[in-house]
Specification:
Layout: E1 9-11, H1 12-19, H2 23-31, E2 38-40, E3 43-47, H3 48-56, H4 60-68, H5 77-87
Antiparallel strand pairs: 1-3, 2-3
Helix pairs in contact: 1-2
Length: 100
């Protein structure tokens, strides 16, 4: 069996295949900031390591803190995080998850 090599930087199509989600779902979630990625002009790019961290994280706060590195102990991080979620017009914690 041949070993599949996955690049460090994924395209939208590669991320869709990697996550086994539709391109539309990946695009929608990336636009909302739920999946870590960056739009460069008209193309999306995703770091495989960021996708892996996101998948293994318990919640988005832990991903944000792990990606913020040296800023994790910064007193202004909580305000920054709050302003990001306010700009996204959604709560930091989704109370609807697991409430079925």
């Amino acid at each position: 069996m041949d070993k599949v090599t996955i690049p460090d930087v994924l395209t939208l199509e590669e991320t869709s295949a990697y996550l086994r989600l539709s391109i539309e779902t990946v695009t929608s979630q990336a636009l909302k900031g739920n999946i870590p990625g960056r739009k460069i002009e008209n193309d999306w790019r995703f770091l495989k390591s960021a996708i892996d961290d996101w998948l293994s994280a318990k919640n988005s706060s832990s991903v944000l803190l792990s990606q913020s590195g040296v800023f994790a102990d910064d007193d202004s991080l909580a305000q920054l995080r709050a302003s990001i979620y306010q700009a996204r017009e959604r709560p930091e914690i989704d109370d609807s998850i697991g409430s079925n």
